Amino acid sequence: EIPQPKFKRVMLKISGEALMGDQGYGLHPPTVARIANEVKTVHDMGVEICMVIGGGNIFRGLAGSAQGMERTTADYMGMLATVMNALAMQSALEGLGIFTRVISAIPMDQVCEPYIRRRAVRHLEKKRVCIFAAGTGNPYFTTDTAATLRANEMRCQAIFKGTKVDGVYDKDPMKHDDAERFDTVTYDEVLAQHLNVMDASAIALARDNNLPIIVFSLDEPGGFRGILAGQGTYTRVH
Ligand code: UDP
């Protein structure tokens, strides 16, 4: 029996590091496959799925510029890293029989589609998973901001931010035993208390468009589907 989803169309944002498994770098194919499976269970419910994957497992602009690289060049390298991750996820999803499109903010026609909003909407209506790559296409932004931007453009009902923990805590739960999880928290509280959800520009963009952010654990098998079916623990930023 397939539970009724609470949402019709969602954005799933994961960091590039979510794809590297226990390695310190790059892509770990079994981990990519595991996440693709999580996406499949939600796709099977009939939910329309957008994805944005970061690039931090391969390259981060800030790290490059800290080593003396020109910042915008380093940021473009970071954006290119997200395209590689998107292609890896596309391959894994297609291995499960799910039609996907990789849609890049920076046109690279031999590799994937350019971003054309109406075309992306049509893919979603046809139940194709749309993986938005190359961030916003602009340096000085992050893939969290890209996820928020695309979620707004695609009229997603929420952003699902998959992390290592099951929500937003008042302090790092990996370091503090007494860290407490919020069931709900407002955008302004996240900003004022510097809570670790997404960067400030992404939070502001979500807030100004009333786009809820659901922070949940990607390590919990079945967690993504569970939350869409109305179960599990998570934090709702609204
Ligand atoms: N990036 C960018 N503009 C964007 C999105 C990303 O310049 O709109 C670059 C930036 O250098 C960033 C890198 O791409 O460090 C990888 O993205 P991000 O750090 O968001 O990846 P994550 O931390 O989610 O793995």
TrEMBL record:
Does Kinase count among this protein's keywords? yes
Q: Where is this region: Involved in allosteric activation by GTP?
A: 21-26
Record domain Aspartate/glutamate/uridylate kinase: where: 8-217
Q: Name one GO biological process term.
A: 'de novo' CTP biosynthetic process
Mostly located where?
Answer: cytoplasm
Annotated ATP binding sites = K13, I14, S15, G16, G56, R60, T163, Y169, D172
GO cellular component terms listed in the entry, alphabetical order: cytoplasm
Q: Which InterPro entries match?
A: AceGlu_kinase-like_sf (IPR036393), Asp/Glu/Uridylate_kinase (IPR001048), Uridylate_kinase (IPR011817), Uridylate_kinase_bac (IPR015963)
Pfam families in the cross-refs: AA_kinase
Q: In which pathway does it act?
A: Pyrimidine metabolism; CTP biosynthesis via de novo pathway; UDP from UMP (UMPK route): step 1/1
- Report the EC number(s), separated by commas if there are several: 2.7.4.22
Task: Quote the record's activity regulation.
Answer: Allosterically activated by GTP. Inhibited by UTP.
SUPFAM superfamilies per record? Carbamate kinase-like
Which transformation does this protein catalyse, written as a reaction? UMP + ATP = UDP + ADP
State the UniProt keywords alphabetically. Allosteric enzyme, ATP-binding, Cytoplasm, Kinase, Nucleotide-binding, Pyrimidine biosynthesis, Transferase
Which residues of this UniProt protein bind UMP? G55, D75, T136, G137, N138, P139, Y140, F141, T142, T143
Where in the cell does this protein reside? Cytoplasm
Molecular function (GO) terms for this protein are:
ATP binding; UMP kinase activity
What HAMAP family does its record include?
A: PyrH_B
Q: Family, per the entry?
A: Belongs to the UMP kinase family.
Query: NCBIfam families from the entry?
Result: pyrH_bact
Q: Quaternary structure per UniProt?
A: Homohexamer.
Protein's job: Catalyzes the reversible phosphorylation of UMP to UDP.
Task: Specify the protein name.
Answer: Uridylate kinase
Supply the source organism for this entry.
Pseudoprimorskyibacter insulae
